[in-house]
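Working notes for the structural subgroup meeting. M.R. asked for a predicted model of this chain before we commit to crystallization trials. I am recording the input and output together here so anyone reviewing the notebook later can reproduce the run.

Input as submitted:
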Amino acid sequence: MDEATTQAQHTQTVLRRSLPYYGWYIAITLALTETISWGIVYYAFSVFLTPMQADLGWTRSELTGGFSLSLLVTGLMAFPVGAWIDKHGPRLLMTLGSIGACILMIAWSQVTNLVAFYLIWIGLGACAAAILYEPAFAVIAQWFKKDRGTALAVITFAAGLASTIFLPLSDALLHAFGWRTAVLLLGLFLGIVTIPLHVLILRRRPDGLGLQATGETHPQSEVSLRNALRSPVFWLLTLSFGLAALATAAIRVHFIPLLIGSGISASTAAFATGTIGIMQVIGRVIFAPLERRWSSGVLVVGVFALQAISMIVLLVGQAPALIGIFIVLFGMAQGAITLARPALLAELYGSTHYGRISSVMAIFLTLATTIAPIGASLIFDTAHSYQPVLWLVLIIATIASFTAFSAKRYAS
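Returned structure, recorded in token form:
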């Protein structure tokens, strides 16, 4: 090796050390694109549920059936997406997901046929699998070790505001232009922002840029997919997180119609639902330092119990004060759950096979969130009241707490 080559390599090393670690650029990029993707592909649907029902003449069950189909497809796509991220990285996959989501949002804005509506949401489910939390968390597991918790917090703190930003924004667009133009504008915005960011910033692995993932403070075991699936703790955690997801999805999709049905205006309902996102961020801010004092297992049990308590508050009544207390408790619980799951899985099983291990759990969680909206709609259509739904959600959230407690005891 000649002197010029050695000098050039030395210069590159000095430059790398003087610049921020590239993984932080990826984390910040994903914080922005996750916020937009969650806000538009997931949360905005609840704003358009009532006006679509009035305009198209379809029942609430038929409309939420399309949304549930998308969640089902997202779950079915979880494993191939996780395997792709483990092997090839996120750049191509998340870029194509953003392109597809943009096109399908535009198609949704023009839909007049129920079958076409279902096909659109099936496609959006596949796109969601490629652009929402699962691939983003797998990327962070690849790029970070010691600072993994901080990087996850950066993404989830920002994306926790997705509902806070996009529910009021969607409602404002709805009242200004009608639901079709509102959906069209949201789809265009998603494409304009997320597609170039995914293309330009995302990279496969740190070694592709001559870097190493941020170091660990202690040795970390790397568990294979087969060994993870043989662990009873994994399946107990999957059950508890799945039940919690079932309870969450039933409430999140129907919270605006529930508030409207209790006499609250649509705009106020959208604003109130959006504040859940603020509480999610607060929940993550509280959860992060507590993780240094108590084990993740203890915190997960507490968070699931908090979710159950929030449902008791909503069952007492829908007075403004009670709704406010519910939003605080429910939002904090959801924020902590989102941060706890990837941190706990990475802590237990390592990063090498994280995408596939996490995707197996995600399949069951997505199946739960698929069942919840349509199930809640069917109960509402039969009872003409959300009261039976609230009681069922409380029971499910309580069981989730006991299951998480069992997983903690088994692990210890």
